[in-house]
Amino acid sequence: MIKIILFTAILAIAFFIAERYSVTPWLHPNWKIILIFFLCVSFLTNRLVESGLQDNRERFIPLFMAATVARLILGLAFIGFFLFRHVEQRRTFVLDFLVLYICYTGFEIWTMTRNLRRDS
């Protein structure tokens, strides 16, 4: 869990620096909300997988797939909510969301494969 918090802090620092010291047409004003959303979703999916692995290691794949599907559904609901509320700069909002979605998914896969290599 500490890795996810550290990853989020690094992304937040990068976004903060980009927002403060350069003209960023690609950065949506609500980037903080998107980052907090991904921190919460990563925490929830991480807890889901860890709690399931305590009892039975064979349940890892179904739990990881369930966590991935939950992340996708929550992401679609998040995007749908903000688009329904007529957020400004829709294209920028969706692109920032997709980039962070790919970053967090890649980070989770990377941390999972590192843990699997160690356990095998």
UniProtKB/TrEMBL annotation:
<feature type="transmembrane region" description="Helical">
    <location>
        <begin position="30"/>
        <end position="49"/>
    </location>
</feature>
<protein>
    <submittedName>
        <fullName>Uncharacterized protein</fullName>
    </submittedName>
</protein>
<keyword id="KW-0812">Transmembrane</keyword>
<feature type="transmembrane region" description="Helical">
    <location>
        <begin position="61"/>
        <end position="84"/>
    </location>
</feature>
<feature type="transmembrane region" description="Helical">
    <location>
        <begin position="90"/>
        <end position="110"/>
    </location>
</feature>
<keyword id="KW-0472">Membrane</keyword>
<keyword id="KW-1133">Transmembrane helix</keyword>
